[in-house]
Design goal:
CATH architecture of the largest domain in chain A: 2-Layer Sandwich
Structural class of chain A: alpha/beta
Oligomer: homodimer
Largest interface: A-B, 84 and 84 residues
Helix content of chain A: 40-55%
Number of helices of chain A: 13
Shape of chain A: globular
CATH superfamily of the largest domain in chain A: ATPase, nucleotide binding domain
Number of strands of chain A: 15
Radius of gyration of chain A: 23 Å
Strand content of chain A: 15-25%
Order of helices and strands of chain A: HEHHEEEEEHEEEHEHEEEHHHEHHEHH
Strand order of the largest sheet of chain A: 6-5-4-7-10
């Protein structure tokens, strides 16, 4: 029996590693929270004023932050300097290969989208055949971007969100072979391949970092995009499973006598919902709008789909005891139209102890969540070691 | 938006906190791995030989470890000293309130059960009415234990595993109101209340620390004991949810047209299994034995129950992408008798990417897993700060 996997290797931290850790903690704080006074940093990071002063000087010297006097303090005395992330100069590229569209953005430190491009993804386009389009997006943003070319700009890397499902030319949605996206990510005209994650997982990361689930440690983000995947945060950490394939909640069987699913099984959650309302973004919007205008069959479809939605959510609530469930992608509109049915099913089907504190929400970042999450991946290296990364 | 929950508060580590961390890491290593040479500790903990020497001297001085020459080295030269946990002298109490029995054990450092007591739990006994029995167990082990009274014994604390389900006098199994166990845990004749967890969660902890799931970071332990609960480990960490109520996988709905369940819902996973084979330990054993002897209705019941078991496992595999699923409690016998059906359902129902690396296992610690897990809770304080705890 080996204990090595349970016991982190520890060595005595050096002064250098402590400084690196503190620089990362300070930069992460302003990346997540935005403009922050030195006084708040002192109290939040548990460091003394002179240490905060030295750290901010280092980060400002590397071009990662600015410091300035706050516009208004409302208090007497000398105001505490405000530390600001240099969002327009410190940036990464975020890419997103979704079922029905391709997107790219230049995202600044602090999670700010500075520029973006988008095109529909033609049916049946393999992931590797989307890369030329994405490379073109990056090229175009490089040429037109004011910051990117300037001498003091800091490029931190790139991240990519990939939908594991794709719509083939025959209209059927199938799961990508694992690794397909990662193998193909070399060819974007970047020095280093982008860090990859799946769309639901990165949308969850974004909503947890700076969206509807900020400050909550147990979160299920459900992403509807032809299929349903979940990004799961438990105890403040992403749950991705052994090979990164966790979160395939759409293929949870909810009715063994249900419809045949493209995955080869029967009665999968997403298939039972989609028999009433197709999980394409446009189709959901159209159906919800028809229901709103009083079309009886659309109203019935929304009611049935929302009821199934509630079934699966109840199962996940029993399994995870989360504080929030966030309905993203195509599920946003379905949830908003059928919230009463979702809540009703949750209250009859989930155990009281598991559902008592759960909040049902829609994404604060809307459709940008996967892109913002991909950018979070791009920033990870900088936040782990700010000065080394900024200078490389 | 507050970032405080995402950013751990950091302060510069002092020499003292580094030493405490290293003492804890060394003691945890021998607690999990058993007898370990100084040479292995040096390489595994990333510390130099003189630091390891100083740490082992401190731990030996506090009576927590012994050092000695290994019996056989098979190599020339002076052998590296072997560090051994003092299992017979450093101990905690582990308690377990299960649906059908009450247990207590004295468990030594290293996870060794030194002594134990057990009685059936009469139907309908509330948790608080079991405490007198458990207090009697502890009292009895205290009086008869050789180590407990001696001058150099170190008592580290106690842990308790509590089944969240109870069988009422009418035979119906219902969920405990949350907190019932914790509120009632004051009265055991101990200086400090025991640290509490639920049975499945602690059995998972035990199997992950020193059992069938050692070294695996993504594990689902399924505990059958009138109902089905899961202990979930994701990314090496326990997933317990917001209020500690996660893992109620038995109430995942697998058939909306299924049987009414005691929880108020319909077609819950545990109810669909139990319509074929009751989830009592004795009932499962009897049914499996009858099937083995060729009884056709018992064989049919095992086949159907195992098929449902596989359904739920497939759902969990799609959600978590685990490396191992461990079948504990009453599920052990059912899984062993119906493994082919469980595997068959898994291969038709779970996505290939999610199930590719999953191993199906039975507990290495058998029925002791909840007790050993409760002991792990008892040892946590010692392992976090060995010298302070040993001297208090």
């Amino acid at each position: 029996m080996s204990a090595s996997s349970q016991i982190p290797q520890r060595s005595t931290p050096t002064q250098d590693s402590v400084r690196r850790q503190n620089l990362g903690a300070l930069l992460r704080y302003v990346h997540v929270s935005g403009d922050t006074s030195r006084a708040e940093l002192t109290s939040q990071l548990g460091l003394n004023r002179s240490t905060i002063g030295a750290l901010t000087a280092d980060l400002a010297g590397a071009g990662l932050i600015d410091e300035g006097v706050p516009l208004e303090t409302g208090r007497a005395g000398r105001p505490s300097l405000v530390v600001r992330p240099r969002s327009s100069r410190v940036y990464g590229y975020a890419l997103s290969i979704e079922v029905d569209r391709l997107r790219a953005a230049r995202v600044g430190l602090g999670g700010k989208i500075l520029d973006s491009r988008e095109l529909p993804r033609p049916r049946g386009t393999a992931v590797r055949d989307t890369l030329a389009t994405l490379a073109g997006f990056i090229d175009d943003m490089r040429r037109t971007g004011s910051a990117a070319g300037s001498a003091d700009a800091v490029f931190v890397g790139s991240g990519i969100a990939v939908s594991r499902m794709m719509r083939h030319a025959d209209g059927v949605v199938r799961m990508l072979p694992p690794g397909a996206a990662l193998d193909a990510a070399d060819d974007l005209g970047l020095d280093r391949p982008p860090v990859a994650g799946n769309v639901a997982d990165l949308a969850a990361l974004a909503e947890h970092t700076r969206g509807a689930a900020a400050g909550l440690d147990n979160v299920i983000y459900l992403h509807g995009d032809a299929s349903i995947s979940a990004g799961i945060i438990a105890g403040g950490r992403r749950v991705t499973g052994h090979g990164g394939h966790g979160g395939e909640v759409g293929h949870m069987v909810v009715d063994p006598q249900g419809l045949a699913c493209g995955c080869g099984s029967r009665g999968c959650w997403e298939t039972e919902i989609a028999r009433h309302v197709s999980l394409d973004r446009d189709a959901v919007t159209a159906c919800v709008e028809a229901a709103r205008l009083g079309d009886p069959s659309a109203r019935d479809a929304v009611r049935r789909a929302a009821d199934w939605l509630g079934f699966g959510v109840a199962n996940l609530v029993n399994i995870f005891n989360p504080t929030a469930v966030v309905f993203g992608g195509a599920l946003r509109a379905l949830y908003l139209a059928g919230a009463a049915h979702v809540r009703g099913r949750l209250s009859t089907t989930a155990l009281p102890a598991c559902r008592d504190h759960v909040r049902l929400r829609t994404p604060l970042l809307g459709d940008d969540a996967p892109l913002v999450g991909a950018a979070e991946l791009a920033f990870e290296r900088l936040l782990a070691d700010p000065l080394e990364t900024a200078e490389s």
